[in-house]
Amino acid sequence: MIKPADLSVEFLVNIIPYNQALGIRYVAHGDGWASLVLPYHADLVGYSDTGVLAGGTIFTLMDVSAGMAVMTARGGWVPMATLDLRLDYLRPSTPEQDVISRVECYKLTRRVAFVRGMAYNDDPEHPVAHVSGTFMMSD
Amino acid sequence: MPLRQLITDIVSQPFAEGDVVQSPFARRFGFRYRVVHGDLMLILPYRDELIGSPIPARLHGGVIGGLLEYAGLFCVMQKLSQAGELPSGLPKPIGITVDFLREGKPHDIFAAAEVTRLGRRVANVRAEAWQSDRERPIATAVLNVVVDVA
Lengths: 139, 150
Known about the structure:
Shape of chain B: globular
CATH topology of chain B: Thiol Ester Dehydrase, Chain A
Order of helices and strands of chain B: HEHEEEEHEEEE
Radius of gyration of chain B: 15 Å
Distance between the termini of chain A: 31 Å
Largest sheet of chain A: 6 strands, antiparallel
Distance between the termini of chain B: 20 Å
Number of helices of chain B: 3
Strand order of the largest sheet of chain A: 1-2-4-5-6-3
CATH superfamily of chain B: Hotdog Thioesterase
CATH superfamily of chain A: Hotdog Thioesterase
Largest interface: A-B, 37 and 38 residues
Number of domains of chain B: 1
Number of helices of chain A: 3
Oligomer: heterodimer
Number of strands of chain B: 9
Strand content of chain B: 35-45%
Strand order of the largest sheet of chain B: 1-2-3-7-8-9-6
Strand content of chain A: 35-45%
């Protein structure tokens, strides 16, 4: 059975125009975490001779995933803004392969949410990128 | 024309402007470059698909992060090219930290960067993005970039 909370995370990911432009889609979520996918597409490559996705596409994937993780931790959507986001590129994303995120909100205060997570191609033990950041609740 | 050639051309001209067609991602979203008195900036003209929050319309944070990263990488390539040391492989970012200072309005975004230190292996770069007023940046970033790629 689909719960309303399941619908809202998926719905929010899918209605954002820039997510649509990059092809970012919902995969799964739980209490305080979210997982999304950035499908590989030749238009999203940084340098054509490498076939590696541009960093900005993974930055976007992780920003959205982090926002959704905060939302699940809060128990629903609230107005919020990314305060800062740090992305470490651990290795180049493998050409032709999708990128999957898993980001958790590991601490929530009244005003600030702290997030961390990873991105990987097919093996979570062999990550592409690590993210950490903070979000400000604006209400 | 490869990206390397674009950078070499940019460095040789005090004024230049054009589309960044050498990168598929930059071409897909319409990135432009502009050189004024040798200073390089990147421009991302507004389009509706860059929106991250529909009501009120705000640019996606990932749009801003992606532009800042390109501004940083271009600046590193410009400096390497000026030093006659642009390698055949292109610089790779190790990491980027973005501070979001203001909401991105549904308008064009500009970004420029400076290399704080150009080492033999790593370049440390600062980048900033703005919209209507350069004195009021919407985001700043620091990047570390590997430059000794073969």
